[in-house]
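We store chain and fold; thus.
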Amino acid sequence: MNNPHRRGDVRRLPTRMPARRHEGLLSAGVLAIALAAIGLTPTTARAAAPPLEQVIDIVVQPRASELVVRLHVPAAALAGATLPHLPDGRLDPSTIDTPLRIVAADIARNLDVRQDDGTLGVPLAAARVGADQHSIEVELTYAIDPGEAGISARLNAFRSEQQPVRTQAQYLPPSAPAQTISVSGTPARVLFDPGVADALGEIFARGVRALLGGGDQLLFLICLLAPLRKARPAARLVAAMAVGQAATMIVMAGRFGPSGIALTALAMVAASAVVIAALQNVVRARFRWTAAAALAFGLLNGFAFGGSFLGAAPYAGAHQRLAFAAFLLVVELGQVWLAAILWAARWWLDSRGIAERTIAIFASVVIAHEALHRVTDRGGLLAQSGSFGGERAVVWLALGWIAVMVVVAIANALSAQARGKAPVRQAAHA
């Protein structure tokens, strides 16, 4: 006698086995990309070249009731200043005294040095031509209250006509380690030697900006939660991503991470992992492969958050460990909050009668399209670096994508073939 349950089991076997093979091959693509990123990190880091910038060096040093601010400013970073030059392009020290006094007063006004939010008085200013005769040296001496802290200044208020400008400031307190801060882009007010409350406030704001600044983690969260999942599996996937991010951030906080163009290469690979996650939704990958992809993405995406913290850490002054704990807490709790909102929205859409498969495929296609644009943009940045490491990164990523697409095509063919043979196998057992 034929067992109907046995026939039902046989009928399902041909469709399940290729799916497992498909999922395993697709997950192998994720691991291959992650391994490629790890292999690229040392090469791209060595090949990175420093950007061409005009750099202003500032030293800020309190001395009892005085605050001395010394600046080294390239003449090219003083757009709009009329300084006399010799025929060979060097500054002319014989006729520059009056213009230098004007420039020194303008620098003091732009720095806007304050103590406890109160603007300090007009400083004693001295200026001279630098030893290379292509820069100027300025010294500003302010009267301050020796019993109060809260020294701040407006940094990077310089403008060059052809090159970006970066200000590197060093604060030398009497009885504490030096604080070094680098500011590029738009001018920013910097508080030197901040207290705990000020440091945590600054780090909190920068952590929120890193979380909501359009990073890959939001796209990946949508990929994880687009399929209708119960609360516990969804939480496990988000936790796997968060654990990977935290592990990488902890390593980078110890100053062991890559720098320069290597971070761009890793960001490019992280965007590729988003595309893989979208493909996993389309082919209905098993939970364990999705969890592995979430952990791999977290490890890669942690480099982006680690880089954001390293950029924010100097603003915390002497409170580095506390600042890292606050940054990590903001990022992880913020992602849990975002995941909860996305999960609730997904269940609301399901309650409105929209088919689960429709939502998952539509969201995955849109996210894959956006992630591919990010991969292309970051690959372009690597190619523009002109380094061997950058070119190698683009080549390896292209090869990885070809391999993934071939794997998906083979898996689809095997799945179709298995479905075609299913009726024959059923008849044989009838």
The chain has two domains: 4-49+203-429, 54-193. Residues 54-193 form one domain. Confidence is low (pLDDT under 50) at residues 3-21, 27-50, 423-430. Residues 121 and 389 are 51 Å apart (CA to CA).
